[in-house]
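User: Could you walk me through two proteins back to back? I'd like the raw sequence and the structure tokens for each, with a short line separating them so I can tell where one ends and the next begins.

Assistant: Of course. Protein one, sequence then structure:
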Amino acid sequence: MSDKYDVIVIGAGPGGYVAAIKAAQLGLKTACIESWTDKEGKNRLGGTCLNVGCIPSKALLEISHKYEEASHDFAEQGIIAKEVGFDIAKMMKRKEGIVDQLTGGIGGLFKSNGVTPIYGHGKLLANRNVEVTDKDGKKKTYEAENVIIATGSRPIQIPPAPFDGTHIVDSEGALEFTEVPKRLGVIGAGVIGLELGSVWARLGAEVTVLEAVDTFLPVVDQQVAKDALKQFQKQGLNVVLGARMTGAEVKRKLVNVTYEDSKGKQEAKFDKLIVAVGRRPYTDNLLSEDSGVKLDERGFIFVDDNCKTEAPGVWAVGDVVRGPMLAHKASEEGVMVAERIAGHKPQVNYDCIPNVIYTSPEVAWVGKTEQEMKAEGEEYNVGTFPFAANGRAMAANAASGMVKIIADAKTDRIVGFHVVGPQASEIVAQGVIAMEFGSSAEDLALTCFAHPTLSESVHEAALGVAGGAIHIANRRKKK
């Protein structure tokens, strides 16, 4: 078989494997390079998301949520569940089983679509040549008409709290605990920190989340963020804002943490410390000096709006380029690039990429926040509806949170859609579809929603934009 391809993809995460499959479906001879190996040294497809990110974390979130429900919420619903317990080893085994199934599934998809997997570390050379170094250190060079870089990202390590893999860990290590820590510290109250903190808090850990900024979830609409924070605090998450880490030292199997907040210097002791302060693009030994690909000032690969680098025929997608570090954003970019290589002209609508925090309640949003609208001086109308007034949410014993819709005051076009509450990750898709099709709030208000459903809260919030909600008192309009 020739070592020349129409498309070579470096990285088999959600951006890379999707790009490879789409390229092959479009009739392009495609290969996908991946260096990931498991603990036994076996090659693994799927990247961070499937192996140590989105999927295993959601498995543990679901399991711990069910345990939390059985332990604390069943009784008030008339279900008697005596001596509810859990088995950490079985939880981890189930998580690994899901990961195995999905990563193996990608191999099957590659085979059925004609994608050639190449295992090893890929490095882009000049003129779209790609050098692959396998596990044994052997090198081989492949040639391509087009190269798609999809190498993803890795956790950021901060000097005050270097990882030791046992007591001070990153998000990957936090998915591998063999027992519930009595006291758990989490550095960073972002998506990853809140999700991982929630898992172990539900299983009995005393969790303290230290966040450097003074605002909780500053990228989230603040009405929604404040509602979420109240729910997390009720669940026992101790969220400390404005806490700047100054040091972490392991002594006698405990992590001694020092930080500064508005009250001055503080100390805390934890059995485990998770550092979840963000991720950085993975470009280690990725580009030769003459590859023609440039990095921006933050270390991301520089690309245009269509994910094209400055090197002819070289593209980059996902966490390694600008924009939110989200698996679904990476996949959409991968599809767009494959289509463009094949001669089509699609674009990613970056205004319609949803964000989700898979805590309980879930937090999800798409588009602009109320704070952004105010900062831009735009006139807008808002409709909100609480799940406390939703029959299906009450029946499900999950009546916290709300749906919030923001619409342009002049056009009534929906510009922001925010949810905190049950199944927010699913409900937000309704907002994404509405915004993708340029829907007005009135369009949603005139749509018939099934009863009883959680989605009726979307209907009521849309009605509320114009002050016409049915099942809750409307705000009086200012005269």
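----
Protein two, same layout:
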Amino acid sequence: MAPEHTALITGANRGLGRAVAAELLGRGVRVVVTARCGDDAARTAGELGGGTRAHALDVTDPESVRAALESVGPVDILVSNAGVLLDAGSDPLSVPLDLVEATFAVNLIGSWRVAQAFLPGMMRQGWGRVVFVSSATGSFRVGLYAGTPGYSASKTALNGLTTMLAAQARGTGVLVNAVNPGLTRTRMMPSAPRSAEESAVDVADAATLPDNGPTGAFLRGDRTLDW
């Protein structure tokens, strides 16, 4: 991956997002770490070093996304990692719908909002990679997990968004894919078997695909999964 490429990562102050930032930095990519709190992003950027930049970006706030675009400018890689899991232990009949709405606001609409901001610039420049961090809980092939109904449905919708944006960008040099990182040990899932560093490799691989790589796909490592 050429060193002139710049990647913006949402929700990158900790967990998987931070690990992806470190992995891409190690591959020679310039990195912009973003988080809802600018101080958190700046602290992480300072820890990572290597010229890592930081910016406040709240994916649920249109003005915050607009300000990040104006300040950061065009990027070559977008890793849409920011996400929430608010309804663990629920079921589709009893889950409070305000939790579902809050989940969709981040996991789907937030990802969509950031893509609308940064993807057109990639298409104009003729090269780009967009990676949505998804989950097998939203896969029809695996079976949507009813124990986190809002989260699962939000990831199903995110997978649908991936295919639509990939179709929109096809032929422009921009590849748009979703990654299933597997059960990853983060604050969201502290007892998961896979480390954030391990999962970050899969995300970074999707973010640095060659020009003949897949688009509109659901990826897990070097495998393409059924939706």
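The chain has a mean pLDDT of 94.

Let me know if you want the two compared in more detail.
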